[in-house]
Structure formats: C-alpha cells, structure tokens
Amino acid sequence: MFKGTGVALVTPFDDQLQVNYKDLEKVVDHTINNGVDYLVVQGTTGESVTLKDDEKLDILRKVNELNRDKPVVLGIGGNDTDKVLRQIDRFSSESFDAVLSVCPYYNKPSQAGLINHFTLIAERSPRPVILYNVPGRTSVNLTAHAVSTLSHHPNIIGVKEASGNLNQAIEILKHSAEDFLLISGDDFLTLPLISLGASGVISVLANALTKEMCGIVNLALADNYEGARKILQSISQINDLMYLEGNPTGVKSLMELMGLCSGKVRPPLAEASTQLRKDIEKCYNDFK
What we know:
- With about 290 residues, this protein is of the alpha/beta class.
- The protein has helices at about 20-35, 55-65, 80-90, 110-125, 135-140, 145-150, 165-175, 190-195, 210-220, 225-235, 235-240, 250-255, 275-285, and strands at about 5-10, 40, 70-75, 100, 130-135, 155-160, 180-185, 200-205.
- It contains 13 helices and 8 strands.
- Helix 8 (about 190-195) packs parallel to helix 9, helix 9 (about 210-220) runs antiparallel to helix 10 and helix 12 (about 250-255) packs across helix 13 (about 275-285).
C-alpha cells in the first residue's frame, strides 16, 4: 500500500492565512492526476504545527472527499506523548490508512524514551504506524537499533528516514523485520535509498513536480537507475532551492508559479524572498 511515491501535501492558505480549500482541491487533483501512489496529510510540509485541531479535521475530510482510491496517511505526532495519544483517539473514527508520527522534538529523549513513546502510540493507534526520523528538525536521531527494535511491533510498519545517513539506512534494512518499510524522507536521496532496498519516498517536491518524482521512483523500483538518474539530474537545481528559506516556503513558491496555490505560509515561517522567487522562476523556466 505504501510502496512508490507518497506526497507530503502542502496546506494552501489565502491572503488572510485561512485554509484555501479551492486550492487544496487543485493540489490534490494535480498530484493524483500525475501519478502519486498515496497522500500524506498534515505532515511537516503541511504546516501541521500551526494548524488548529478543527482545521486538521476539516482538511482530512476534504482530502478524503477529493481522493480517488489512494491510500491516505495522517500525520499525528509531537513532543507530548499523552497529547499525541489523545489526538489519535480524536481522529480514530475518521477515514485514513496509516499514521505518520514524527520523533518528539525539543525534549531530546533517550533512545529508551523514543522506543517507549512510539510503542505507546502503536498500541493506541487503530491504524498502522510509520515512524518519522528527521533529526535536522527534531535534534534527536532515532537510531537504527531503535528502529529495528520497533519494527517488530505488529502495528509499526515502516519508517520515513530523513537522517541523510546512508549507513544508518543500511543498518535499518539489515536488522529490521522482514516486511518493514524503509521510506525515503529526502527527495534527493530517494534514488540511492531505493538501490539499497527502500520502498519509495514521501516527497515534498511531488507537490509540484509530481510526474518527475514519480518517474524517478518508478524507474528506480524497476531497476532502471539510468533513466531515474536522468530525471534526477534535470530537477537538481530546483530541488536545491526548495529548502533555503524553510519548508514548505520553497515548494509553495514553485507551486504559485504553476498556478496551484499561493506562496502564503503561516508564521513563524515567512514567504519566499524576492531573490528566492526569482531564482525558482529562472530554474523552473529553464527546466520547462
């Protein structure tokens, strides 16, 4: 169900920074029409930390209304375990297929604390759980040993791995349960990770360049690494610009150029600077 390209959907906003559901419809249609395999709602790229619970519920329901038989992953995570468990309870009656849960940030728990946190989530969740390791954002790395330990829990099915450490990815694949999924959390490491045994990616860039990201993943999964590499090289300059001023600042600026949604983001993020917008526009026009 979660093999291939998942898209970490942005949350479009209007000029008053309210959720723009008309643009959300354009984004969902664009990604589905261009080949994504599943939808990820309210991940980091969806600015979940600045969304109110009622907004999160409305967004999930809207995505489900627009969806056309694609699996849906719902982001539910945080640094207060009890609060995460209560959010799982609140959303448990809604329609989705898995939970994506990020490592607790700021607290900097030990590996034992992380294992306990995710075990409690897996035992409470009515859907399978995908771990999300992104130490660049959380300041804590979920080690390969911790991931492999958690992989044997019957309700934990995979990890979105965004540490950037290929050796760690190898160790996860080597020691985890047989059917455990390693999912790339870094668009530009997806190709090498698939060559090692990853099942695909949960992608930021797929919000905009959906066809290209799906092409990289599908070709790599079919062992056509040369074809995947050519596409990867063609979008390398655009990808380099996506994170210079925060995520999803860059990808929303690109999507605004494409007519998919505005570049608005909620504080503390800021819209792309004039220079970044110019650079993204030039790269996009060169790519087209």
